[in-house]
Design brief:
By secondary structure, this protein is mainly alpha-helical. It has one domain. It is about 65% helix and about 5% strand. Helix 2 packs antiparallel against helix 3, helix 4 runs antiparallel to helix 5 and helix 5 runs antiparallel to helix 6. The two termini are about 25 Å apart. The relative contact order is 0.16.
Amino acid sequence: MTYHNSNPSPEIVQRRERVFLVLAGLFLGTLAMLNILGISRFIKLFTLNFDGTGDIVFAVAVGVLPYPLTFLATDLISELYGRRRANFVVFVGLILNLWVLFIIWLGGVMPGFETMTVAGDIVRDSAGRLPIFYEIRALTFGAVTASMLAYLAAQFVDVYMFHFWKKLTHGKHLWLRNNGSTMVSQLVDTVAVILVTHYYAKALPVDSAKPIFNQLLIFIVSGYTFKLFAALLDTGPFYLGVHYLSRYLQIDPMADLDME
């Protein structure tokens, strides 16, 4: 296979841009979806029963389900297009987060058809709940704030660690930089999301009668275990993606080329 990294034909340039657009779109679309779903519901993964200490429930937010896909997308971009383009997509993701936040805020401040009190507050229903949009708005604010802080830290760590392992191993051991970068970045992301979601958004289903540290630790372990398992599963798709896309795009990943 002859790679044309320096002077690719127009057809190859078009292929590269199309694949980049698909990977970036997959990353950004998934990011927007998980920010809306966010912490609207928590899913029980499994429950462990310990005599004398009660049940320990391992659960994750519904927004976590598609999140590992974002790391697969940035790893493929890092491998095929280089660190600079991967960081650019991460930065665009931050702008997307701010855009989602702005639209959700704007939709809440503009006049609607809700029943208002004399003081200007929205009337709650008999169950004490706000209209559905405002429930989503409150959860989205919490989720986006948590995800923005965690996202920036985790994604930049992922890109940095990916290229750190790539340089350290001289381009060998693809599985190491894929899993190694994702494992570290997912830990950063999980800790940040849980802490911000609890202390800022107040949205974790915690029991105030029990020690908070233990409960937060269980949420961190639950989220990280899920993400770690998903990261290990994406090793196969990552290998296949690099193998076939590098040939299709005529890119030599060893060249560590940043395409403009």
